Amino acid sequence: EAIQRRQVSHFTFKPDPECQEYGQTQKMNLFQSITSALDNSLAKDPTAVIFGEDVAFGGVFRCTVGLRDKYGKDRVFNTPLCEQGIVGFGIGIAVTGATAIAEIQFADYIFPAFDQIVNEAAKYRYRSGDLFNCGSLTIRSPWGCVGHGALYHSQSPEAFFAHCPGIKVVVPRSPFQAKGLLLSCIEDKNPCIFFEPKILYRAAVEQVPVESYYIPLSQAEVIQEGSDITLVAWGTQVHVIREVASMAQEKLGVSCEVIDLRTIIPWDVDTVCKSVIKTGRLLISHEAPLTGGFASEISSTVQEECFLNLEAPISRVCGYDTPFPHIFEPFYIPDKWKCYDALRKMINY
Amino acid sequence: MKWQPLTRGDRRAKEQLLAKMAVAVAATKFWGPSRGLGRAGLLLLRRLGARGVACSHPRRQQQQQFSSLDEKPQFPGASAEFIDKLEFIQPNVISGIPIYRVMDRQGQIINPSEDPELPQKEVLKFYKSMTLLNTMDRILYESQRQGRISFYMTNYGEEGTHVGSAAALDSTDLVFGQYREAGVLMYRDYPLELFMAQCYGNVSDPGKGRQMPVHYGCKERHFVTISSPLATQIPQAARGPGYGIMSIRVDGNDVFAVYNATKEARRRAVAENQPFLIEAMTYRIGHHSTSDDSSAYRSVDEVSYWDKQDHPISRLRHYLLNRGWWDEEQEKAWRKQSRKKVMEAFEQAERKLKPNPNLLFSDVYQEMPTQLRKQQEALARHLQTYGEHYPLDHFEK
Question: Which positions, given as ranges, span the membrane (chain A) (predicted)?
Answer without folding.
Answer: none
